[in-house]
Fold:
Amino acid sequence: MKHIINSIIVSVFFLVFGAVGVHAYNHAAWGTDYGDATGYGQASNDKGIWQRLGDVNGIDDGVLWSVNDSDFGTTADLIIGEEVTFQFNLWQGNNGDHWYDQLYAVVDWNQDFYWDNSEVILYEKNDTLAHHGSGNFDLARYIKYETSFLVPETMNVGSTWLRARVQCHDSHEYGYMTPYGHLLQGETEDYQLSIVKAPDPEAPVPEPSTIILLSAGLLGLVCINRKKMLKKS
Ligand SMILES: [Ca+2]
Ligand SMILES: [Ca+2]
Ligand SMILES: [Ca+2]
Structure:
């Protein structure tokens, strides 16, 4: 009998909150998600249903970046010595039984394939509004965070990785999140970042006349080769 009553309560919940457009429980979002940075320690999360990054649990869609005020995206190269702004989109939903959600992000600035505490770029704890045990299941919102850095001069041209994780306040590792290990809720997203050098302002720029001469020379070579081929055939 108790089981039947519970089922009825859940059905009413779906009906009420479905009708007003609030995110109801989506069981498709319960699957385990993993970090996938190549060469780094493992990370995994269950139940992206209550907090995730971006719109979809298991898909890397919650982190964007801008280089020197470019449009936010996931393709811009990071330029050594110049500014990068990272943007994180934390989604919180149905937080009926915990105090806050956590967002943690780290970049392997020294490119040693290990994220440590000195490389954390963001660690936020955001109130759920529900508070512990209140039974308030109607929260569904995005919270956006941004943080800016100058790409360290010590970085090497090549690549590195960013890892971002979210979870509630009380699944494993209560008190402090780390880049590694399994969490009982949330999502982990990994991004490979390309690191490049700024163009050298002292580098000589070819004169337009030099470019024209070079182009004319190349064109001449192509014509000669073509004539030779025609002769042969
Ligand atoms: Ca993932
Ligand atoms: Ca996601
Ligand atoms: Ca490192």
